[in-house]
Amino acid sequence: MKRQIPVLLVFVFGVFMIFQYFSPHEYSEWIYKFLMDWIYIIGIFAMALGIWSLIHVSYDKIKNKRHDWGYSVVTLAALFIMMFFGITGFDENGEWGFYFMTQEGLTNPMFRNFFNHILVPIETTMFSLLAFFISSAAYRAFRARNVLATMLLVSALVVMLRFNPYFGEAVGLYMNKIAAWLLNVPNMAAKRAILIGIGLGMVGTALKVVLGIERGYMGKG
Amino acid sequence: MKKTTLIIMAGVTVLFLLSWIIKALALEGMQEDYIKKAFLVTFSAFLTLSILSFLYRDNPFYKFAEHLFVGVSAAFWMSMGFWSTIVGNLIPRLSQNLSVFFKVHYIPGDFNFRFYIPVILGLLLLMRLSRNYGWISRWSLAFIVGTTAGLNFIRYLRSDFIKQISATFVPLLVDWQGTGHFFSNLDLSASGQLVMMLANWTIFLGVMSGIIYFFFSKEHTGMFGRASRFGIWVLMITFGASFGYTVMGRISLLVGRITFLFRDWLGFNI
After folding, report:
1. Number of domains in chain B
2. Residue B219 belongs to some domain of the structure
């Protein structure tokens, strides 16, 4: 009961999703469509579970005054404040309630402010931080010690320097053409070889899951 | 907390307040809600600098920004999911009263009852929180895992396997009509015959040798070894190009943040 029903459900839905592709009947497509809707809806409940887990972990840290517990207060405060502005708001008549989205899109000004002035700056700066780390890694890795390292170095330099204005128009144009060729031809060839491997791996894993060989998703117990 | 940390935090607070006041004075007369606008710009700059401070080492400002981000982004995605999926798609099909409450149009339909099933499955997923009945959540999980596995089976087989193989088998010998503008203008677009042939050969040999490099069931010696060696060359060019491409993307983000700091926050005319 605890383990057999999930395996059976995985098999039934997995096999159906495989076979529906080969039977473009309107009923099959109708079922496929509502199964996809179901996944999104259940996904929201899964997200709620994740939020609960975040609250639980943070609360536990604060309650037991663990190391750096003060930051968990920041997380919880941010979560609840953003949630408050995300779920409630003023409607077009100026009345407060469960109101957020209109035909013009997201209109809640506080939600927008949180997005524009907290989420966007932190996220973009975090990604831009990688520029520094990646450059220091390149300094260590990009030594033309042998043919392979030289190839790595040259192709990276060509792609990185293609928009460099100091090269002038003529050199920049050729650099850009070579970089585009590198990205579109050899880069695509190797990526395609990797993709074929990934594809085979994913197909094998999906088959193992559908046939009940891989049951890691059930956890223990 | 150390005395030095407290002094630094106090200093940053004073700087923040000063920046807010100066920014508000600069925006006065230009914008209606200049005090709020000045606060938001100053706070964005503070968060940007807090994250950049990680370049020195892990510190309280970075940790503050990091934890703030976790809370805000979790709530952001939850709110978006709630309004787009639950209120946008589910409630209009389930209840007229709730549709009126959330001010969305009710969508009547003969088969709307089917939307109760994902709600039940979703509620079963929440049973994960129960110690005794946590196993029931596996039913919902099994539905998601099974459906996704079936979907991925076809999707990856088509897009990452069949389509990639079919795109690799390109014409290696074409009806020769000259070199095009390759020598005169280094025209590397595939419109030139020579370039097209070169590209097709590179793609075909690159994919084959790349696959050979990742094939470990046979020892890489002789012809197989040479093909594998060529595979590494192609892979190295790819890694270099991908690295360069990623660096450029990150640098452009950094330029965006630096522009924000100097133009929007400090007011330089750049």
Report:
1. 2
2. yes
Is there a contact between B121 and A38 if contact means CB atoms under 8 Å apart? yes
Dump strand ranges (E) for chain B. none
CA distance B233 to B187: 24
Global pTM exceeds 0.90: no
B197 falls within a domain: yes
Show me where the domains of chain A are located. 1-77, 88-141
Element (H, E) at A102: strand A101-102
Cα torsion B236, B242, B248, B254: sign: negative
Write phi, then psi, for B9 (nearest 5 degrees): -65, -40
pLDDT in tens, A70-115: 999 999 999 999 988 888 776 666 676 666 655 455 667 788 889 9
More confident position, B104 or B225:
B225
Nearest residue on chain B to A178, judged by CA atoms?
A: B188
| CB–CB contact B244 A16 (8 Å) | no
Question: Tokens 């100066």 sit at which residue?
Answer: B22
Mind telling me how many Å the CA of A87 is from chain B's nearest CA?
Answer: 6
Distance from CA of A86 to the nearest CA of B (A): 5
CB contact under 8 A, B79 and A100: yes
Whether the predicted pLDDT of A143 surpasses 80: no
Helices (H) and strands (E) in chain A, counts: 8, 4
First-to-last alpha carbon distance for chain B, in angstroms, is: 40
On whether the CB atoms of residues A210 and B153 are closer than 8 A, the answer is yes
* Closest by Cβ to A207, choosing from B82, B117, B153: B153
Put simply, the answer to whether B138 touches A218 (Cβ < 8 Å) is yes
Q: Which amino acid is at A45?
A: F
Question: CB B64 to CB A74 under 8 A?
Answer: yes
- Domain membership of residue B159 (yes or no) is no
- pLDDT tens-digit readout, B39-81: 999 999 999 999 999 999 899 999 999 999 999 999 999 988 8
Q: Is residue B149 part of a domain?
A: no
- Identify the domain containing residue B12 by its residue range: 1-57
